[in-house]
Amino acid sequence: MIDRWFKNDLQSIYDSHLVAVFIDESGDAKFLLKAVENQFTIHETNSEVEELHVKYLIEKAESLHGKFLIYTRSKKEDLKFIREYCETNGCLEIRYLQNYVKDKVHQTLNLNINLPKEELIAAAKVSVGKDLTYWMDLSHKGATQIFDLNKELLPFVHDPETYAREKYDAQLRKTFYLKVNELLGQDYLIKPATTLAKEVVNTMLDGLAQNHCIKILDTVYTGWLDSITFRDSFKGYLESYVLPVPLDIWKVSIHHPFRQVDEKWLAKIGAHLSDKATLPNTLAKLRQRHQNNQAQALGIVFWADVITLLEFDPKDIQYLGSFSECVEFYKKHFYRLDTAIRNLYAEFLNKKDLLEPFQERYKEHVSIFLDKWFKYWSGYKETQKGTLQRIINDNSKKTAVVVGDGVTYEIAEQVATRLKGSIKHTQLLLKRDAIIADIPSETENNMSRIYMDNGFVEAVQTNREKYLAAQNPNVAIDFIRLDAVNEEARPGQFLICTHKDIDDMGEKLQQKALKYFSETIDFFAEKISLLLAGGYAKVYLITDHGFVLTGLLSEADKISVTPKGEFVKAERYIRAVEKQPDLAPHLIEAEKNYKQFGYLYFAKNINPFKTTGSYGFSHGGVSPQELVTPYFCWERSSSVAASLSVVIENKADLKNVTGELFQVKICADEGPGELFSMDRKVYLVFFANKTQVNKSDVLIVQRNESITKEYTFDGHPALEVQLLDATSKQQLDRTVIQQNKDRDLGGLL
Predict the structure, then answer these.
(1) Is residue 466 classed as helix, strand or coil in its secondary structure?
(2) For the structural domain made of 387-548+619-636, what CATH number should be given?
(3) Residue 6: pLDDT band by 50, 70, 90 thresholds?
(4) 492-549, pLDDT tens digit by residue?
């Protein structure tokens, strides 16, 4: 505000004159020159020689009609050569800055400011750029309002040396340090800015640890973690901080930053899992922590999974009365426990004491559910055979299918969560369903079921794809890897995208793969989103099988059995040539021919058979985690607004083109008559041998209008052209353009 007062005082002189003199005897007001440095030519003089030189410069330049400000610290009566400017033009004299400020505040607001000289000068400097409310607050609330520590402290602790050096001059810096020390309740001592900043942060962290943080520091803390600019510096302070001892962990602020406190909470909760009386209060506190923005910003996100395990009530399992009801229960409720334990394994697998109680709770729930699952096992029937063929039969629009390897139902749900919302102008509709995988739930068998409906097991992926293509000779199907999906349009009506990351990582890395699963979920969501935005009306997510995680595993957990005769034992299933009467009462038996084997045996729990090699990630068994696989379909729901119908009109002519040039005629119908369907933006994409070779500009087709565009074969004997909506990339029409070289006489006739 003082800058405005200063400018107004000068302007009263410049209204009549081109030269003004600013006398600042104390030198405290020199900072005000910055407020006018771009408006006037400023000359500083503090001796007779300088005065004479300045007078010469001004008189020489006066004809240029500029405005000049002379700054001096000499008393008015001591001036020689510029004294006449004071008398004839005008002079702004600030002998004592504190008095100037007091007078201005009283004149403007009729308020009295009673602050010591240093604080009043500091307040004047801080007031630059502020309005009258600053002085009103200062008058009513005192010196604490000189600096808005809510705003000043965060950039200060983020980079103390730079902020203090660039923000304040020496005088203002000292006053700022005084106020910071007052806030901390300590005496002012000269110390490095970094030392003072660390004291500020330690006081803040002490307050959070003991749940009586100073209000200003609490505001700084929340702002720190909310700030993209400043957040990184917090980590260094936190790593060097030591929690006070003793510490009541249950009295720590709910939005504290101390992961070790969260882990102490987790240990206490794990030790008292059976105490149902305290569970409601515990859950209430955990929900608060889970919803806390600061905890989320610090990556402390595992409480959601703990809450899921603690909240789950297994009593509804007793009401399940069939295998299909078990499947539905898994899809609606139980899969959440698998997500929770997978996340907790990823977070705490190397911290056995923390993880073990929650793994035991999970296994208790699994045991209860599997009792029902296997009670009604006779109702099991795979629904996986010919999955891709069913999708092809059921869809006439452009459709993409993502075929994952080892994508559990719960992971598909996580992909769906990432995909919530809309893509451009299209809302997404999601239909959740499940496919019951064939047994044993391993890649070679289950991928064969997905691609082939003849019951054979095919080990080679390209042969499975050839089989599907051969079964659909009149349907254009593209096969690619999911990581090759991009914004480029593809010619086929169906696109089959394969991705093996989860199964590959799980089998190679076992439980070390857990930390990468979240990235894979994001990858699936990103690619499905790209497919939907790229013109596919539907995108399916299916998989061959799921998996189980064994987590913390003891020797006693491993199932030790030795079948008779010739057999192969994997972690989750046994293949045997002969029937095994001794195993049948304890294991699930299935009669199924494969090579020389005739029988399959599976455990009735999620524990592995004792085999050579590492444990952790496995599949092949008959648990719901392995057999209930996702059959998710995302569909673009077009806007309610009716769209103008646009088609390729001259398809018949394009089937037999003479010469190198051809014309594509695009025609729009009359439309339903609404304003929004008066026109439609479209474009053409050309393919040769399933590779995009050309693309038109965006064309605007009006209602009841035809547009003709000419193109060339460019060396290709045949092309496929697709007409796409420019906004949604929806395929509106397509046709094949065939060059007839027999009739091309090269212009001889």
Answers:
(1) helix
(2) 3.40.720.10
(3) confident
(4) 899 999 999 898 998 888 888 899 999 999 999 999 999 998 889 999 999 999 999 9
Please tell me the number of Cα atoms within 13 Å of 407 on its side-chain side.
32
Angle (CA) 584 544 408, round 5°: 90
CA distance 35 to 58: 21
**675 Cβ contact partners less than 8 Å away, ≥ 6 residues apart:** none
**What CATH number is given for 646-738 in this structure?**
2.60.40.10
pLDDT of residue 671: 64
pTM for the structure as a whole: 0.79
Cα angle 413-419-423, degrees, rounded to a multiple of 5: 155
Residue 333 is given by DSSP the state I
User: CA-to-CA distance for 318 and 426, rounded, in angstroms?
Assistant: 42
Are residues 24 and 155 in contact, defined by beta-carbon separation less than 8 angstroms?
no
Cα–Cα distance measured from residue 177 to residue 748, given in angstroms and rounded to the nearest whole number: 95
Q: Looking at residue 113, what DSSP letter applies? A: -
Task: Report residue 166: phi and psi, to 5°.
Answer: -90, -25
Closest CA to 139 of 123, 121, 153: 123
What's the CA gap between 409 and 380, in Å, rounded? Answer: 17
Write out the two tokens for 455.
Answer: 């019951």
- Distance spanning both ends of the chain, measured CA to CA: 90
Q: Which of 271, 301, 273 is nearest to 361 (CA)?
A: 273
Tokens found for residue 145: 């309002």
Q: Calculate the average pLDDT of the chain.
A: 89
pLDDT (tens digit per residue) in 68-84: 888 888 888 888 888 88
CA distances from 158 to 17, 152, 180, 198, 509 (A): 48, 10, 15, 10, 40
Q: What is the DSSP letter of 332?
A: I
Decide: 386 and 453 in contact? Cβ < 8 Å: yes
Residues across the chain: 749
Q: Output the CA–CA distances (angstroms, integers) from residue 287 to 273, 291, 337, 646, in the order listed.
A: 17, 6, 17, 53
3-class state of residue 420 by DSSP:
coil
8 A C-beta contact, residue 736 and residue 720? yes
User: Can you tell me the distance from the alpha carbon of 505 to that of 502, in angstroms, rounded to the nearest whole number?
Assistant: 5
Q: At what angle do helices 170-184 and 149-158 cross, to 10 degrees?
A: 100
The tokens for 614 are: 């590492």
Q: What is the phi/psi pair of residue 346, to 5°? A: -60, -35
Residue 9, token pair as written in the block = 């005082």
**pLDDT at residue 546, as a whole number:** 97
Closest C-alpha to 671, from 693, 698, 643, 690 = 643
Residue 190: CA count within 13 A, CB half-sphere: 1
Which helix (DSSP H) or strand (DSSP E) does residue 114 occupy?
A: none
CA distance to 220, 379, 657, per residue, from 652 (Å) = 72, 54, 10
Q: What is the C-alpha separation between 730 and 442, in angstroms, rounded?
A: 36
Q: Indicate the SS3 state at residue 285.
A: helix
Instruction: Using the CB atoms, write b or e for 100-118: b if 16+ within 10 Å.
Output: bbbebbeeeeeeebebeeb
3-state secondary structure 159-225: CHHHHHHHHCCHHHHHHHHHHHHHHHCCCCCCCCHHHHHHHHHHHHHHHHHHCCCCHHHHHHHHHHH
pLDDT of residue 426: 60
Contacts of 610 (CB under 8 A, 6+ apart): 558, 559, 560, 561
Distance CA 531, CA 441 (A): 28
Pairing of strands 548-549, 731-738: unpaired
pLDDT higher than threshold 90 for residue 742: no
What is the DSSP-derived secondary structure letter of residue 657? Answer: B
- Distance between CA 508 and CA 614 in Å, rounded? 10
CA distance 335 to 671: 47
* Residue 710 phi, psi dihedral angles, 5° rounding: -105, 140
Q: CA-CA-CA-CA torsion for 547, 548, 554, 559, nearest 10 degrees?
A: -80
According to DSSP, the β-strands at 538-543 and 399-404 are parallel
